[in-house]
Amino acid sequence: MSNQGVKKGATLNQRLQSLIQQLGEAIHESVAESPQIAGVVQDIRKQGFDVLLMLEATIGLNEVEEEPAGATGDERGEPFSPQDVSFLRSLRIAVEDGAGE
Quick one: 50 and 79 in the same domain? Predict the structure, then answer.
């Protein structure tokens, strides 16, 4: 890979890291500002308990493969696109061999 390719990949990687961080912050703000969550926490405190809320988020990324414009799995004679197959397998759903590949 040329130096230019390395720089482009590093810039993309930094941009992606920044976007993932922004997503994490947006999730945190959504939870922190939720009136429903605040109400439940307040009700728990009224029962005499302190509340420590820790959430873990797993963010998975799959690079989207380029397909010819307008092409779908059905147009290729396949029920699922490669991205569909990857998603289904990530959910531990078995997919017939050759589907979407």
Answer: no
Q: Report pTM.
A: 0.49
Q: Are 85 and 100 in contact (CB under 8 A)?
A: yes
What integer pLDDT is reported at residue 55 of this predicted model? Answer: 84
Residues 53 and 10 in one domain: yes
For 71, the domain range is 62-101
Whether pLDDT at 3 is above 80: no
Q: Which of 37, 87, 85 is nearest to 97 (CA)?
A: 85
HEC profile of 38-61: HHHHHHHHHCCCCCCCCCCCCCCC
Within 13 Å, how many C-alpha atoms sit on residue 51's CB side? 13
CA-based max dimension of the chain: 63
